[in-house]
Specification:
By secondary structure, the protein is α/β, with parallel strands linked by helices. It has a single domain, classed as Rossmann fold, CATH 3.40.50.10300. About 25% of the residues lie in helices and about 25% in strands. The strands form 3 sheets. The protein has an 8-stranded mixed beta sheet with strand order 5-4-1-6-9-10-11-12, with helices on both faces. Strands 2-3 form a two-stranded antiparallel sheet. A two-stranded antiparallel sheet has the order 7-8. Strand 2 and strand 3 form a beta hairpin.
Length: about 210
């Protein structure tokens, strides 16, 4: 299969040097990319800024902003069999980016934030015969929020984990179906989870 994988955070710039982002390390997405290549798949990785080596055999596109992620994914997805979306997209951006560097004045400033593009929802709308696997990092009412994301983004399944996964080498995930059933659970090192997820996707999602 030819698989599109997104990983890492996105950044939304306030001015030329300051940005909004999150603490995603990209480890889960990179581990999945490595596991997919090891399983014999053709992998395209679209990644935000992370401090990780690109797995051998992976084709990579580096991005920073959510709009860059969106443009890359919309270009690449039509030639793929499916997407595994682990990227931790920054949900908000400043309504106006300041040119240059803001100077401190000693006074408070107010940032007006607007929502960024919902990249996975766009891919879900356009999936056709392709499959879509989403990730949901939740801390409150996790199953309800994960299922809402699955349905809004037209995913074939969604991988639910919590905030303890951030920057960790380990993780615990629950895979939910569109019927809200738990169809798999994996725990341990992210590298081990990645191998199990690829096997699961091959047999239960792509192979349907």
């Amino acid at each position: 299969m030819k698989i599109l994988i997104t990983a890492g955070p996105t950044r939304e710039y306030v001015d030329d040097v300051r940005f909004l982002s999150n603490a995603s390390s990209g480890r889960m997405g990179y581990a999945i990319a490595a596991a997919a290549v090891a399983a014999g798949h053709d992998v395209i990785l679209v990644t935000g800024p992370v401090d990780l080596p690109v797995p051998e055999g992976v084709k990579v596109t580096h991005i920073e902003t959510t709009d860059e992620l969106r443009m890359s994914c919309l270009e690449l997805f039509p030639a793929c069999d499916g997407v595994i979306a682990t990227a931790a997209v920054c949900d908000y951006r400043p309504a106006r980016r300041v040119v240059g560097k803001m100077t401190k004045t000693g006074e408070p400033i107010v940032l007006q934030l607007v929502e960024t593009s919902d990249v996975l929802a766009e891919l879900g709308e356009q999936k056709g015969d392709r499959w879509v696997v989403g990730f949901a990092l939740e801390s409150q009412d996790p199953r309800t929020n994960a299922m809402r994301k699955l349905r809004m983004k037209n995913c074939d399944c969604i991988v639910l984990n919590d905030t303890s996964a951030i920057s960790s080498l380990e993780n615990t995930v629950e895979v939910l179906s569109p019927e809200a059933a738990t169809i798999a659970e994996f725990g341990g090192l992210k590298t081990d989870i990645a191998r199990q997820l690829i096997t699961f996707i091959q047999t239960k999602i792509a192979g349907r």
